[in-house]
C-alpha cells in the first residue's frame, strides 16, 4: 500500500508511472502534500519526461 490511497486521482497517476519510478518514490519515504508535488518528483526522476496519462 502506498501513501495515496485516500486520493483516487493521485493513486491513478502513481499507478501510471513506470515501475522503477514507483519504486524510487516508495523507497525515498517522502510524503507529498499534493498531486502536483508527486508529479514534479516523478518528472524529476524520469528526467523531465511526462508519462502518458488520462
Description of the molecule:
The chain is mainly α and 54 residues long. The chain contains three helices and no strands. It has helices at 8-16, 19-28, 35-45. The longest helix has 11 residues, at 35-45. It is globular and about 25 Å long.
Q: Evaluate the radius of gyration.
A: 10 Å
Strand-residue proportion: under 5%
Shape: globular
**What's the overall average pLDDT, rounded?**
83
Distance between the termini: 22 Å
As residue ranges, the low-confidence spans are: none
Count of strand segments = 0
Main beta-sheet strand count, sense and barrel state: none
Topology:
Layout: H1 8-16, H2 19-28, H3 35-45
Summarize the structure.
This protein is an all-alpha fold and 54 residues long.
Key terms:
3 helices, 54 residues, single chain, mainly alpha, globular
Amino acid at each position: 500500500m502506498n501513501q495515496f490511497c485516500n486520493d483516487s486521482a493521485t493513486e491513478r497517476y502513481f499507478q501510471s508511472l513506470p515501475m522503477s519510478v514507483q519504486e524510487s518514490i516508495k523507497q525515498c519515504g517522502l510524503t507529498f502534500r499534493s498531486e502536483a508535488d508527486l508529479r514534479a518528483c516523478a518528472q524529476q526522476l524520469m528526467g523531465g519526461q511526462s508519462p502518458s496519462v488520462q
